């Protein structure tokens, strides 16, 4: 392997060299086993992006979608219910992304009525052909397709069951609650524990975003703070009034901030070097609670992030109309 020079060597090349070195020398047998068990996540830059989303009372999913609309590779949005799909369609149209298809996942979610009222009556129901839409995205490329999950895992589990050949091509970034903690586990995942169990145990390329990390206050939006004021500026994004109305409704319910965990899942899918990963094994209880288990499925976890830089990135996405990443 020789001296490591990172000027030309890719992560995959470095991994192959390290594994080759550890394999050649018996004294490094344990290291070789650890490397084989945790190969680096696949490189996905430039591949299509599918966002599966539930837009609820907390506006964090809508904020993540507004950021995703700035990404040219965004190809498909799956709303978990009729209202989420209509909300997504309206937001994307405001952002000039009529080219992005929106379909209904029909997971039975129920939106806050005040959030539903944000959607004009002129925005009709979207197609319910999820499998057809995902098939079309996958047919347009060879190799991987990125999947950003901001809700329950029902739709992804259905794809696993109905089209496993497609599921094997998805590189999934999914927001979850705190592991091994029934109090702070994500409610969305427990609404369909069978789907959660299926996805956690069988997705080949899965990375989970946990909220239990230090520094997340940097990506929290509060009423009157810098990002809130930027959205209220005259030259803000076309979707800014929609986001502000959603945020105001959240604050009027007594919440002080909306923390943007779904944005972390998007940043992860964009392969931006802002997150710290840990490779572990996970399983799922009958109630849909995810926990560590040495005999579980190999999975990557986001255990930390550079939240100050991420906050700057978020500000840029929501306040620079002319730039698309």
Write a brief caption for the model:
With 325 residues, the chain is an alpha/beta fold. Helices cover 39% and strands 18% of the residues. It has a nine-stranded mixed sheet, with helices on both faces. A two-stranded antiparallel ribbon has the order 7-8.
Description:
The chain starts with 10 loop residues before the first helix and ends in a 6-residue tail after the last helix. The longest helix has 14 residues, at 11-24. The strands form 2 sheets. Strands 3-2-1-4-5-6-11-9-10 form a 9-stranded mixed beta sheet, with helices on both faces. A two-stranded antiparallel sheet has the order 7-8. A hairpin with a 5-residue loop joins strand 9 (275-284) and strand 10 (290-292). The chain is of the alpha/beta class and 325 residues long. It has a single domain (49-216, 252-319), classed as Alpha-Beta Complex (Inosine-uridine Nucleoside N-ribohydrolase, Chain A), CATH 3.90.245.10. It has helices at 11-24, 29-37, 60-68, 82-94, 113-116, 130-139, 154-162, 164-167, 187-190, 193-202, 226-231, 240-252, 261-269, 307-319; strands at residues 49-53, 74-79, 101-104, 145-150, 170-175, 205-209, 220-222, 257-259, 275-284, 290-292, 297-305. Helices cover 39% and strands 18% of the residues. The model is unreliable at 1-7 (pLDDT under 50). The protein contains 14 helices and 11 strands.
């Amino acid at each position: 392997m020789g001296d490591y020079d990172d000027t030309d060597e890719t992560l995959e090349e470095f991994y192959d060299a390290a594994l080759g070195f550890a394999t050649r020398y018996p004294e490094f047998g344990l290291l070789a086993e650890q490397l084989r068990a945790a190969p680096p996540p696949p490189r996905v830059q430039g591949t299509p992006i599918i966002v599966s989303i539930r837009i609820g009372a907390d506006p964090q999913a809508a904020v993540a979608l507004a950021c995703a609309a700035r990404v040219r590779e965004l190809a498909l949005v799956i709303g978990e219910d009729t209202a989420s799909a209509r909300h997504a369609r309206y937001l994307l149209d405001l952002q000039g992304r009529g080219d992005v298809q929106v379909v209904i996942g029909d997971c039975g979610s129920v939106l806050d009525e005040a959030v539903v009222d944000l959607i004009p009556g002129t925005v009709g129901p979207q197609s319910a052909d999820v499998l057809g839409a995902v098939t079309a995205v996958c047919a347009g490329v060879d190799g991987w397709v990125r999947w950003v999950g901001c809700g329950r895992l029902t739709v992804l589990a259905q794809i696993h069951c109905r089209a496993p050949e497609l599921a094997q091509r998805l590189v999934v970034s999914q927001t979850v609650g705190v592991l091994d903690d029934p109090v702070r586990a994500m409610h969305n995942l427990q609404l369909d524990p069978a789907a959660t169990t299926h996805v956690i145990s069988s997705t080949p390329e899965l990375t989970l975003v946990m909220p239990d990390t230090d520094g997340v206050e940097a990506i929290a939006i509060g009423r009157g703070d810098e990002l809130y004021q930027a959205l209220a500026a005259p030259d803000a994004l076309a979707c800014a009034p929609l986001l502000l109305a959603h945020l105001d409704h959240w604050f009027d319910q007594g919440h002080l901030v909306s923390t943007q965990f779904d944005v972390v899942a998007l940043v992860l899918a964009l392969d931006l070097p802002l997150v710290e990963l840990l490779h572990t094994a996970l399983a799922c209880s009958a109630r849909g609670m995810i926990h560590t288990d040495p005999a579980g499925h190999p999975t990557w976890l986001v255990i930390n992030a550079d939240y100050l830089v991420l906050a700057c990135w978020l500000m840029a996405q929501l306040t620079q109309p002319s730039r698309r990443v």
